[in-house]
TrEMBL record:
InterPro entries, per the entry: Kinase-like_dom_sf
Protein name in the entry: Toluene tolerance protein
Organism: Pseudomonas lini
Length: 213
């Protein structure tokens, strides 16, 4: 991580658009060149973020995804900013639209549901457990590939995911009513069928149960 003094931090964020903030301050900034500065604060004194900051996890997860040929943001730098007690990751965003942004403009959503099913199978087969899996964090790129954003809490395993992690991941995908309604159209058969074509660990019945709960 690179130390960023307060003067350089102010210069970096000059003219930035605040995309996300909370009571503790800014969280996500769009800089004037279109890149993103995502800020992380340590919420508790005794936490794993003390020795493995979330900004560094975000950058490491991007490296892991690129090694596995999964589209994701491009990291520029990881910073520690002592003056505001924050760590930050500076990156170029993944071009495209999130699946949630596409929900209301797709006349026939089944091809996209099928693509998402195959994509999730690819992630799981390549050892990716994306705990923040929802339609707002999965992007359809201009090249019609699916990729991931907001990946600080992603986990990477050396082997394909075991069944319990896969089923747990599906429950994450239906946490939001809007996502759930879209994904489970037709009882989720298109999504489930395409997921099942590239893996044999989870049966269609198990997938359906996990998604319906």
């Amino acid at each position: 991580m690179q130390a960023l003094d307060h003067t350089r931090y102010l210069a970096l964020r000059e003219g930035a658009q605040v995309l996300e903030a909370d009571g503790s301050g800014d969280k996500v900034l769009r800089l004037t060149d279109g890149s993103i500065l995502k800020l992380f604060r340590r919420k508790r004194l005794l936490t794993s973020a003390a020795w493995y900051p979330y900004a560094k996890r975000f950058a490491d997860n991007c490296d892991a995804l690129r090694e596995r040929q999964i589209p994701c943001p491009s990291i520029r730098q990881v910073y520690r900013i002592p003056s505001i007690e924050r760590d930050a990751v500076h990156y170029d965003p993944l071009p495209g639209q999130t699946l949630r942004q596409l929900l209301d403009i797709q006349d026939d959503a089944d091809p996209l549901r099928g693509q998402l099913g195959a994509f999730m199978a690819t992630l799981h087969e390549r050892g990716i457990y994306f705990r923040s899996a929802h339609l707002g964090n999965i992007v359809l790129t201009p090249e019609h590939q699916l990729g991931l954003i907001d990946i600080a809490d992603m986990r990477v395993y050396r082997r394909p995911l075991r069944k319990t992690l896969r089923l747990r991941n599906f429950k994450h995908m239906v946490r939001y009513p809007q996502d759930r309604q879209w994904l489970l159209d037709g009882r989720g058969e298109v999504f489930i069928d395409n997921y099942g074509q590239t893996q044999s660990i989870c049966s269609p019945e198990e997938l359906s149960i996990a998604l319906q709960k």
